[in-house]
Amino acid sequence: MRHAVAPTESAGNNSFAVTNLLKICSHCERLSKKDLGIRIPRPLGNGPSSFIPEKEVCGRPDALPPSYLRRTVINLFIYIIQAAARHQCSHLVNLHVNDFLQVGGNPKWLNGLDEAPQKLQELGELNKILAHRPWLLTKEHIEHLLKAEEHSWSLAELIHAVVLLTHYHSLASFTFGCGITPELHCDGGHTFRPPSLSQYCVCDIANGNGHAYHHDDLGDQVSHDLNGEVEVLMERMKQLQECDEEATQEEMATRFEREKTESMLVVTAEDEECVPSRDISRHFEDPSYGYKDFSRGGEHVPTFRVQDYSWEDHGYSLVNRLYPDVGQMLDEKFQIAYNLTYNTMATHKDVDTSMLRRAIWNYIHCMFGIRYDDYDYGEINQLLDRSFKIYIKTMVCSPEKTTKRMYESFWRQFQHSEKVHVNLLLMEARMQAELLYALRAITRYMT
Fold first, then answer.
1. What is the similarity comment for this entry (predicted)?
2. Which of 11, 62, 349, 425 has the fewest beta carbons under 10 Å from its own?
């Protein structure tokens, strides 16, 4: 992972202090810290993730497989910064603020969204709705952008913006879901506290990056709770595969509505207001606007039926027509994430995990009001327990509230690599859900 070559306003005075201190240290090796009379910052924790022990990380968790990265669409940094800021993802914001400056971006644009060109400011409403309540997007929102007089967007430009916004909303989910730590020069990436006697700070021990941490220390109760967890899940998968009972279309629709309603009752364990810092909130408008379930405030959101508008039959071709080759890239990216598997479940090998992956993907789309007519939503409650649902909803809808406790509470016997696969699946399912609403609105405007 790259480090910034220049301090930015988002890092604040601490960034300048850290940079200058490191320069002083490198050129004054003969002087001790005491002689200099200054405090030297050190990393807040070891390793790139605060969730995953450093010894189990081959590379940074956000360093995805090459085949995955080749299909990632990256272009205009100002879109990216707006999108990442919506979820208070300082890691991505700081990273791309530095990229923006390196390629000659106007620093004034970073003082606040109102300092950016009017055409880019016009994206604020679209960015807000897509990130938090995409089901509210209408063809009128699209018309406003395409007919904004001298600040209007073309259809091709708008598709480009939508792809970038949705990608970075979902990438923020992945970043928080993997507990990716800020870079050393950023706020939250360093500390001035002295190390403990064992040379490991509290963060390292909690993260499993210190020799003082062992699973055995968690006690017998945890071991008891873990016993048979995977076997129970595998047995449920087997029973569902062997079940010959076929539900009627009416029953299938009822099960979807029931699951959608139940998803609204899943409340994150850390359901409290997260107030963004000024460094982050200046990059987007209306900081108080966030995720809200369909039924809040008396809203009634009709079901989005995939048989009426799907990625495969509608969205893919629209993107490819207006943004050549990108439809194919996105389709391959979705397929890679959906089919990604080790064919393992914890210590069990040669396991067909397709049923489980489909349940996860469809549950996320269900939370966005999207229904697959050929899927039995009764399977979701059989395969996804409440702690997993809490993690999924938090990471997908309010990723900035994701905690280490949530990450550890689901699939406790599974490998961290398997959980990272889950995070990729959640990331792409979320992106496709946002895209479906945006592309359907564009299609309705065009017709």
1. Belongs to the sestrin family.
2. 349
Q: How many CB atoms lie within 10 A of CB 215?
A: 11
* Contact assessment for residue 85 and residue 93, using Cβ atoms and an 8 Å cutoff: yes
Q: Which residues contact 82 (CB under 8 A, 6 or more apart)?
A: 113, 120, 123, 124, 127, 165, 283, 284
Short-list 71, 95, 79, CA closest to 157: 79
C-alpha 52/C-alpha 57 separation (Å) is: 7
Extract the tokens encoding 245. 């009972």
Where do the DSSP E strands lie in 148-231? Answer: 190-191
Burial (CB count within 10 angstroms: exposed 0-12, middle 13-18, buried 19+), residue 241: exposed
- Name the range with the highest mean pLDDT among 53-62, 98-107, 281-290: 98-107
Helix then strand then coil, % of the chain, to nearest 5: 60, 5, 40
- What is the Cα–Cα distance from 144 to 150, expressed in whole angstroms? 12
- Catalytic positions: 89
Element (H, E) at 129: helix 123-132
DSSP 8-state assignment for residue 139: H
Three-state DSSP at 43 gives strand
B/e letters for 257-279, b = 16+ CB within 10 Å, e = fewer, are: eebbeebeebebeeeeeeebeeb
Q: Which two tokens stand for residue 23?
A: 């320069």
Question: Which CATH code for domain 9-191?
Answer: 1.20.1290.10
Distance CA 245, CA 403 (A): 39
Token readout for 307 is 């048989």
What does the alpha-carbon distance between residue 420 and residue 423 come to, in Å, rounded to a whole number?
5
* 340 vs 256: CA distance, rounded Å: 26
Length of the chain: 447
**φ, ψ of residue 292 in degrees (nearest 5):** -145, 135
Q: Which tens digit of pLDDT belongs to each residue from 150-189?
A: 889 999 999 999 999 999 999 999 999 999 887 665 655 5
Sign of the Cα pseudo-torsion (442, 96, 75, 60, in order): negative
> For the whole model, what pTM was predicted?
0.78
Q: Where are the alpha helices (DSSP H) in 155-244?
A: 155-177, 202-207, 220-226, 229-242
Residues forming CATH 1.20.1290.10 domain(s) in the chain: 9-191
Strands 370-371 and 304-305: parallel
